[in-house]
Amino acid sequence: MTPKDIRAAFIEDLTSVAPDIDPDLLDDDEHLQDDLGLDSMDFLNLVSALHKRFGLPIPEADYPELATTAQAVRYLGKAPAG
User: Fold this and answer.
1) CA angle, residues 33, 47, 31, in degrees to nearest 5
2) Into how many domains does the chain fold?
3) pLDDT of residue 81
């Protein structure tokens, strides 16, 4: 997957758990919890959706690497192809 594909997949999963987020207005450096208001349950649902989509275990220690869209795209891009 290209970074553009990963970003699109990430945003699809993000907006499925937080439908009030407008993907057209999303800044890749906005913090998901601090700036966009995701609560801890929304964040865990996002991690679960990403796990399912990418077939990638995401340990709790790596959660900070998913704090923004830009960070998440980099993190998911490093994952071995599933």
Assistant:
1) 20
2) 1
3) 54
Domain that holds residue 39: 3-22+33-77
Distances (CA, A) of 3 to 12, 37, 38, 53, 61: 14, 25, 23, 15, 23
Map residue 32 onto helix, strand or coil. Answer: coil
pTM of the model: 0.91
- Band (pLDDT 50/70/90 cuts) for residue 1 is confident
82 occurs within a structural domain: no
What is the pLDDT confidence band of residue 79, given thresholds at 50, 70 and 90? confident
Task: Please state, in angstroms and rounded to a whole number, the distance separating the CA atoms of residues 47 and 44.
Answer: 5
